[in-house]
Design brief:
The complex is a heterodimer of chains A (421) and B (424). Chain A is an alpha+beta fold. Helices cover 43% and strands 23% of the residues of chain A. In chain A, strands 1-2-8-3-5-4 form a six-stranded mixed beta sheet, sandwiched between helices. In chain A, strands 9-13-10-12-11 form a five-stranded mixed beta sheet, with helices on both faces. The N and C termini of chain A lie far apart (58 Å). In chain B, β9 and β10 form a beta hairpin. Classes of the chains: A alpha+beta (421), B alpha+beta (424).
């Protein structure tokens, strides 16, 4: 189903040929280690590339070109995949069969992608200062606006505290002080550097054959001067002492976040069992957390858990009244304990597996979800197709789930509450 | 059931109306694993006033959403979500201003999932105790929205823009109004608006349309029941009630919603045309390919969070934009003067064609999303329009219509600005 082609050393094209869709997607990612020194620069890069090229010198010219390509979209891509940060562009475009007679979209789209990546206007050996400065402001605003979504804000605070010794504690977009310090020439030099050494991952999903896509990418790749450097392997959680932190802010609802660790990552054969445990414990409307913390005790509207398989971290977040903290926390831990003690019914086990299987089955039904799965799976160390993954989930036993639960340990808690104290 | 094929979109639609009045629409997607079903009622948060069986009813604000929560309860302590989960399906629901939708997605057990969906939505079961318990959960949901600046900025905008239309009240109601909701109120609303004649069943996926229809008849029966008659006493002048509103919250940068009041579009082909004209006008005025967007972006007055379009809700319509800006009032002024400029000079033919091509292409791409397609087919159905006919509507639009729309709607007296600024 997925064809993997090595176009040159450390340049990988993965293709999912599928004629059912009305659009195609292509992602172009440079893979870097997540590091404080460059996270902000990487996060800034795609936004600067999308500001203009020599032939299409401003946003308006770029959008006009995309409008001509039947409303195609190119968006910045900055992802965290375990210890890695990927940076690049994501293109979504209408399938050729809907274009006007004799017209195509894929081929001119690839030409335009090359232009965006390699034909930026320069000044004094760097990107245009006007582009860089305005995108720095935007990126800083984006970083600051994390505050607007209290749930996301609280979760990122939890991870920052819990992962102070780990790359996972570094914010995906860098720190705003780092963004502010970036200079146009330094950014361009960094870009040329990573274009030369970073592994490149290209993912395509759509109706074209892989050989066609490879041929269309050739002009772009031939212009790169490559000396690729392989990346260090992904690693598990880097331990530090746990903490309990409380922050106050002008909010009417509290956010309680708990962070747990587990030695099980997605490189571990126990991974499917851990995934099933997470579903039983806190993912979705039939999980123990939802059924008890919300439905039975009415302690909150939102509650759920998440499992970061690339790192071996489980998190729980709940939106609650300020005075319900102790009660909610106790119930969240009690439900985990229930899992550890094996208080899991066959219905819960089946429902959890079915939920995972169903979402894996449906992965192949949308171009975006295909790209989302495969463009990150291999990088994070999950060496399975959806079919292999499903087979592994199906064979998970109750004992394996209980064993997985018993590896989970509370590490850090963070509570965002209202009022001033 | 005869299929209609839309060659421009490569879509096949089966549609029929059952004896009980239910419309069934099946979007056939061969070769896909996922199946998605929406069971939707033409009843949303704004429909609190209605007559049924000759009697007038005035339900508390938030009733549609409360009802949505409570329909998941079934007699005999059955847990609907758990039953879907056991079949590997995901279920959920949402309430908007003018409709409420219940849906599931699955990859297997489609038949049983569909049965369960039809069954639980058509089975009202409310006890004093369970209705009481839900109040705590919904109150938390209301609290969550009060902390969400994007909800607050929008709700304050609606209160500024409208005088009487119930869009002034949040979909969830308030902590006060939900206190008045009782099992009786929920039963009355269910009887009035959850009758098949007021509903649509929309399914997308590789399913058998005949089987879907047969199941709907089996579960819902053939009897045609009275549908509640909505009272719409909303008289709106085409002027905003208040030009500007502000409040302070924990945000990093001022956040704004800006809207221009437009005439409600009604229903049918002409309504959809109006909507698509307005969408194109929004693109021409402040879309990413517009002269204005570039200028405001380069001047740092807007950033990539900026966006907008035309919104239509039963009884009201508006051209809206939103984003973060350190000077929202300057954004408003720039939009007003740019609209005047386009209204005076008109649109270049080539720019207009490019906008249309782009809008069409984006809508075609959007069809890959099961959820977006189900949502659009449903929403347009209640507006009396077959969504898959959008290409022909686009073709019929002329540049002069964009110009006319902008000069009529984008004016100071129809405008309201809502700003949430950071706490200092």
């Amino acid at each position: 189903m997925i064809e993997t082609i090595t176009l040159s050393p450390n340049v990988t094209l993965r293709c999912c040929r599928d004629p059912r869709f009305k659009q195609g997607c292509l992602s172009f990612q440079l893979v870097r280690p997540m590091a404080a020194e460059e996270a902000a620069k990487n996060a800034l890069l795609p936004a600067v590339l999308l500001r203009g090229t020599n032939a299409h010198p401003n946003l308006r010219a770029i959008t006009n070109r995309l409008d001509e390509l039947y409303g195609a979209a190119v968006s910045p891509l900055v992802r965290r995949v375990g210890d890695y940060q990927t940076v690049g562009l994501f293109c979504g475009f209408m399938d050729d069969r809907f274009a006007l007679p004799g017209d195509t979209v894929l081929a001119p789209m690839m030409t335009f992608l090359e232009e965006l990546l390699l034909d930026s206007p320069l000044e004094n050996g760097g990107f245009l200062p006007a582009f860089v400065e305005s995108e720095k402001r935007n990126l800083i605003a984006t970083i600051e606006s994390e505050l607007n979504d209290k749930r996301a804000y609280a979760m990122s605070k939890l991870l920052k505290i819990m992962c102070r010794e780990d790359t996972f504690g570094l914010p995906r977009l860098g720190e705003k002080e780092q963004v502010a310090a970036i200079r146009p020439k330094e950014l361009y030099d960094h870009y040329r550097h990573i274009l030369r050494i970073a592994p490149i991952e290209i993912f395509y999903v759509g109706s074209a054959e892989s050989s066609t896509v490879a041929a269309l990418l050739k002009p772009l790749l031939s212009k790169l001067d490559r000396e690729p450097v392989a990346l260090p392997a992904q690693s598990g959680f880097h331990p530090c002492e746990g903490r309990e932190e409380v922050e106050t802010m002008e909010v009417s609802q509290g956010k309680l976040c708990l962070g747990f660790t587990t030695p099980i990552t997605n490189r571990d054969k126990r991974f499917p069992a851990m995934q099933v445990l997470n579903a039983i414990y806190g993912a979705g409307m039939t999980s123990k957390l939802f059924m008890n913390v919300r439905e039975k005790l009415s302690l909150c509207y939102s509650v759920g858990s998440g499992y970061y398989g690339s790192k071996g971290i489980v998190t729980v977040a709940a939106g609650i009244d300020f005075d319900k903290e102790a009660e909610t926390r106790a119930e969240i831990l009690r439900q985990l304990d229930a899992c550890k003690q094996g208080e899991i019914s066959m219905e819960e086990l089946t429902a959890a597996k079915e939920a995972i299987l169903s979402s894996l089955r449906a992965t192949h039904d949308a171009p975006g979800s295909i790209e989302g799965f495969y463009a990150t799976a291999a990088l994070s160390g999950l060496g399975m197709t959806t079919a292999e993954y499903m087979a592994a989930v199906e064979t998970v036993t109750l004992e394996q789930v209980i064993a997985a639960a018993n590896t989970v340990q509370l590490h850090t808690t963070y509570f965002l509450r209202g009022g001033s104290q | 059931m005869k299929p209609i094929y839309y060659p421009e979109l490569d879509e096949t639609l089966f549609r029929t109306v059952l004896p009980n009045g239910l419309t069934v629409a099946v979007v056939k997607r061969e070769g896909f694993t996922k199946k998605l079903a929406y069971f939707v009622t033409d009843f949303g948060s704004i429909h609190t006033d209605f007559t049924l069986e000759g009697q007038e009813h005035h339900a508390p604000a938030g009733v549609a959403h409360y009802l949505e929560h409570k329909l998941f309860d079934m007699p005999g302590d059955r847990d609907v979500s758990a039953e879907f989960a056991a079949m590997g399906a995901m279920t959920n629901a949402f309430t908007s201003y003018d409709m409420t939708a219940y849906y599931f997605s699955c990859t297997e057990n489609f038949e049983n999932c569909l049965k369960l969906l039809l069954e639980f939505v058509s089975t009202p079961y409310f006890t004093e105790e369970s209705v009481e318990k839900e109040r705590g959960i919904i109150d938390q949901e209301i609290g969550m929205n009060e902390d969400a600046p994007d909800s607050v900025v929008f709700e304050k905008l609606m209160q500024s823009l409208y005088q009487t239309h119930p869009i002034r009240v949040p979909i969830l109601g308030t902590s006060e109004t939900i206190r008045e909701i009782t099992p009786e109120v929920l039963h009355t609303c269910h009887r009035a608006f959850y009758t098949p004649g007021n509903m649509l069943l929309c399914v997308i996926g590789d399913v058998d349309p005949e089987q879907v229809t047969a199941m709907a008849r089996e579960i819902l029966g053939d009897e045609k029941k009275e549908v509640g008659k909505k009272m719409r006493p909303w008289q709106e002048e085409m002027t905003s009630q208040r030009a500007e509103t502000q409040c302070a919250m924990e945000v990093a940068m001022p956040m704004f919603n800006l809207a221009f009041k437009a005439e409600p579009v009604g229903s049918g082909d002409e309504a959809i045309r109006q909507e698509m004209i307005a969408d194109l006008a929004a693109e021409a005025l402040f879309g990413e390919s517009s002269e204005l967007y570039l200028r405001l972006y380069e001047e740092g007055l807007i950033d990539s969070s900026f966006g907008g379009g035309f919104e239509t809700i039963d009884g009201c319509a508006m051209l809206m934009c939103s984003g973060d800006s350190n000077d929202p009032a300057a954004v408003r002024e720039a939009i007003l003067s740019q609209a005047e400029k386009i209204a005076a000079a008109g649109l270049e033919e080539s720019a207009f064609l490019r906008l249309k091509r782009s809008a069409l292409g984006r809508r075609i791409r959007g069809l890959d999303s099961f959820d977006a397609t189900c949502f659009r087919v449903s929403a347009y159905h209640f507006s009396g329009f077959d969504y898959f006919r959008f290409p022909e509507i686009y073709r019929s639009i002329r540049p002069a219509e964009i110009r006319e729309f902008l000069s009529r709607v984008v004016t100071r007296r129809r405008c309201a600005l809502s700003v949430v600024r950071p706490i200092v």
